[in-house]
Protein: Polyphosphate:nucleotide phosphotransferase, PPK2 family
Amino acid sequence: MAAKKKSKSTSKSKSPQRATKPLSQLLRLPSGPVDLSSLDTAATHGFPGKGKEDGPALTQALAPEISDLQERLYANGRSDPENAKRVLVVLQGMDTSGKGGVIRHAMGMVDPQGIQLTSFKVPTDEERKHHYLWRIRRALPDPGMIGIFDRSQYEDVLVVRVEQLVPVSEWNKRYDEINTFEKKAADEGTTIIKCFLHVSFDEQKARLAARLASPDKYWKYNPGDVDARAKWPAYQQAYADALERCNTDYAPWFVIPADRKWYRNWAVAQLLREHLVGMDLSWPEATFDVAAEKARVARS
Ligand code: ATP
Structure:
């Protein structure tokens, strides 16, 4: 992935370009040490348009193909659940990075019947009685479905680590556990797409301020977000470690520059499209005699 180099205004004026490589290559986090500060939060890698003005239209233009592919996935889940594939999109990012926006604008293009969305909050009393992966396992997508995790198992090595909710010895072993967990899900036929929505410290401030500037946005404002913001370096380090230690071929991380909402939404939709295309989804065969059924319908 290209390193940070441009300010927001400079790369905004870029001329239209066609992606030379699939976005899943351009945004794929390389293996090895992760330095989040070197990755540009305002980049527009692979965006085929001019900028903000055509972001929503280019995102929407992906809808017919995504919709067709999702229907194939769903159809296979209905007709052959034992062998049907599944997709899991994991969304992680600092507060205001736009998990909700991605769900609305990118995932919102998919038939809601084919989506299983789970938002992971502070564990409930019931959840606390179990291993931290218990609630995650229960939320894995069914055959033929696209699961979306709004926050995920990674909270157990992020907020839990930064807020010191368990000892170091406890969270430190979780990276391997998460890898094992994700390997099993992948082996069972789940394509896992992990998206880190990478927003800058300054952009987060602007978004928090915007929430306070207008009464119709107060509901989005959580005073606790400012407390977490005060621990920004610790969160960035926790994210860097989670990305580095859980970046596998079967469950790779993609770093989505998230300072520009229109790019972020397009990028996640495009990643989903590329993964669905790569799954080579065909329509299920009829389980009945088509000619005979045509004749029966004609006679009826
Ligand atoms: P938005 O980002 O749209 O504001 P949100 O995802 O922050 O919404 P909230 O209910 O405000 O939703 O926050 C969920 C909170 O739950 C976050 O602070 C998150 O860190 C916390 N959380 C999630 N999983 C865990 C966990 N395993 N242990 C402790 N806290 C967790």
About this structure: Residues 1-17 have pLDDT under 50 and may be disordered. The longest strand covers residues 190-198. The radius of gyration is 21 Å. The CA atoms of residues 26 and 277 lie 17 Å apart.
